[in-house]
Amino acid sequence: MARKRSNFKILRIFFFLIAGLAGIALLLKLSSNARASDIQKILQNLPKEITQSINVANSNQKADADVMAKFAKLAEDIKLKQEEQSKQFERQRKVLERKLRNMKQISTDATLREKLAYNFEYDGKSRFPAFLWQTWSGSQTPEEVLHVKATWQEKNPGFVHEILTPEMMNALVHHYYSIVPEVVEAYKLLPDNILRIDFFKYLVLLARGGTYADIDTSPLQPIPNWIPETVEPSDIGLTVGIEHDAQAVDWRSHYVRRLQFGTWVIQAKPGHPVLREVVAQIVEHVLNNKDDLSTVNVRNDLSVMKFTGSALFTDAIMTYLNDFIKSGLDRKVTWRDFTKITSPKLVSDILVFPEFSFNVPENFDKEDPLRAQFFISHKGEKFWKAAPKVAS
After folding, report:
1. Which of 3, 50, 152, 206 is most exposed, with the fewest beta carbons within 10 Å of its own?
2. In whole angstroms, how far apart are CA 39 and each of 30, 33, 42, 243?
3. Per residue in 203-230, is it b (16+ CB within 10 Å) or e — as a string?
4. How far, in Å, CA of 289 to CA of 303, rounded?
5. Pick the CATH number of 126-386 from 2.40.10, 3.30.450, 3.10.20, 3.90.550
6. Which helix (H) or strand (E) holds 378?
7. What phi, psi does 345 have (nearest 5°)?
8. Domain locations along the chain
9. Distances 382 to 260, 264, 392 between C-alpha atoms, Å
10. 295 and 250 Cβ atoms separated by less than 8 Å
11. How would you class 275 by CB atoms within 10 Å of its CB: exposed for 0-12, middle for 13-18, buried for 19 or more?
């Protein structure tokens, strides 16, 4: 009986053990199925999560780019404002300088050159004014003058173009130089209109700047085309062409200097020291020789060249270039620096053109390799030859 009870107990324990194992197995199976389902869900959602991550990254990158663009624009705005402020300060400085200059009157015992320098300041970094000056003495017909005017205006439509009669020249000299009465006096004392025209070209360029051209010239290219691309306009204060580069041994019978710079075309910025010196020398010569002015022979080329023409102009240029304080050069300059040049040459702030640039041959070859430097044709009429002869 006891043995039966013991066997029953063992069976009971075995049954519970089997049931427990079965339960554990069931739980393990259920757990395994849950993990598999989760992994499957994770794998299914993985592309979406990757895409979302990429989108978030792109969004962040775009936001960063937007921020950088805003910073760049802010920096550019600040730079523009600084530049504008700098320009305003410069304008204010110039206004203040003018006010101070007006408050400080020039000394009553100032020399002629000091007066000219004080009243007609030179700013080498300024632009060439878009003025074109020409004079008409009556030797050409009105139709010829109108043709000249139309030709120049066609090539230079943006320029203020003035063709001045002797009466207009006289009015401008009085207007610009009433503050330097010696100049007005010398202008009035000149015995011939030809000499006054020569003097006037220097006076108007000193006061206003721009380009002067004799009435018997004709432009082949616009004035702005003259300056080579390799030269900065701010580095130039005076533009001239060679009038004569002597190759013959008897050059002294026709010219004063072996190499001379022409005056039928001159481009200048206001107040250039060369023009100031030319004006000063003419004024001094006239005022110091009042009694002898009537003997000047304007029919003689050499007399005109020395008095108001190209010889005087050439000497003033060479003196300026050899003044190392004014020119900034550290070497001696002679005619050899300009002889036989075939392209524009900048020496200090003076741009010198070859002999052919402002005196283009009448019948030139259109295939000429130098054609790009052909700027002006010049008839060289020398209308003063018709003046009455005066003993020299």
Report:
1. 3
2. 14, 10, 5, 99
3. bbbbbbbbbbbbbbbebeeebeebbeee
4. 15
5. 3.90.550
6. strand 376-378
7. -130, 125
8. 126-386
9. 17, 11, 18
10. no
11. buried
Is residue 145 packed enough to be buried (19+ CB in 10 Å), middle (13-18) or exposed (0-12)?
middle
- pLDDT at position 7 is 59
pLDDT in tens, 166-201: 999 999 999 999 999 999 999 999 988 889 999 999
Among 350, 190, 131, 187, CA closest to 261? 350
* Portion of the chain with pLDDT greater than 70, in percent: 78
Using DSSP, state whether 186 is helix, strand or coil.
Answer: helix
pLDDT for residue 388: 41
Token duo for residue 118: 């004080």
In terms of pTM, does the model score above 0.90? no
Distance CA(235)–CA(253), nearest Å, equals 37
Q: How far is CA 376 from CA 163, 221, 285, 346, in A?
A: 18, 7, 32, 19
Ranking 8-12, 216-220, 376-380 by mean pLDDT, the lowest is 8-12
**Class of residue 340 by CB neighbours under 10 A (exposed 0-12, middle 13-18, buried 19+):** exposed
Using one digit for the tens of pLDDT, what is the confidence trace for 219-267?
A: 999 999 999 999 999 999 999 999 999 887 888 878 889 999 999 999 9
> Token match 């020395």: residue?
306
